[in-house]
Amino acid sequence: MIAVLGIFVLILLAWIISTDRKRIPIKMVSLAFLMQVLFALFVLYVPVGKTILQSITHGVTYVTDYGKDGLSFLFGGLATGSIGFVFAVNVLGIIIFFSALISMLYHIGIMQKVVNVCGGALQRVLGTGRAESLSATANIFVGMSEVPLVIKPYLKSMDDSQLFAVMTCGLASVAGSTMVGYAAVGVDLGYLIAAAFMSAPAGLLMAKIIVPPSEQKISADEITAVEIPKATNVVEALADGAMS
Asked: Where are the domains of the chain?
C-alpha cells in the first residue's frame, strides 16, 4: 500500500508544479499510467509474460557472459573473483562491453528498427508526438547523451512540452550498459529490464503533467525514421561505443 500511495503522491506533486493544470491531457496521462500497470501485471503475474521476461533476461545474460569471458581472458584472476570482487573490472568492464555492442547494433541498423517500431507503438497508444516517443523508447537502450541524436533534425522545432518530455524520459531511465552494470553487482536483471520498459510511459506521464503540450506541435506524419551518424566500419563503431 505504501508503494501505491507513493505513486499517487508523485503524480500529485507533478500536478502541483504543473505550468498549466487546465491543459493537462487527462486521456494521455491516464493511458500512460494504465500502460505501466498492465505491463507490470503482465510480466510479474501472467505466465506468458513471465516467460517472455525470463527469455529476454536469459538472452541478455547469455550475451553478457561473452563479455565476462573476455574480461577473464584479459584480466585473469581480477575478473574471475579468485582474489575477490573487483568493481573496476567486473562492472565497468561489462558496461564498456555492452556500450560497444549497442553502438555496433546502431551501426548495422538493428537498433534503429527496434526503436522506431517501439516508438511508433507508443505514439499510437498515447497520442504523443513521434519524436518524443522515439526518444522515450531510445532511452531504454542508450544513455541520455545519445538519445538526442535520434531526433536531432527535429530539436529546433520542438516546443517546451516536447523538449521537457525528452529530458524527463532521459532522467527516468538508465542506459542499457548501466543496467547491465547494476546486474553485475547483484540486482535482478528481470526487474531491471521490466523497469526500463516501464520508464518510457512513466517519463511521458510525468512530463505531460508538469509541462502540458501546447496547441502547436510537430505532426506525427512529419516524423520519419532518423539515422544516427554511422561510423566508417564495425570496428570504429565498437571503439566509439567503448569510449562513450
From this structure: 2-243
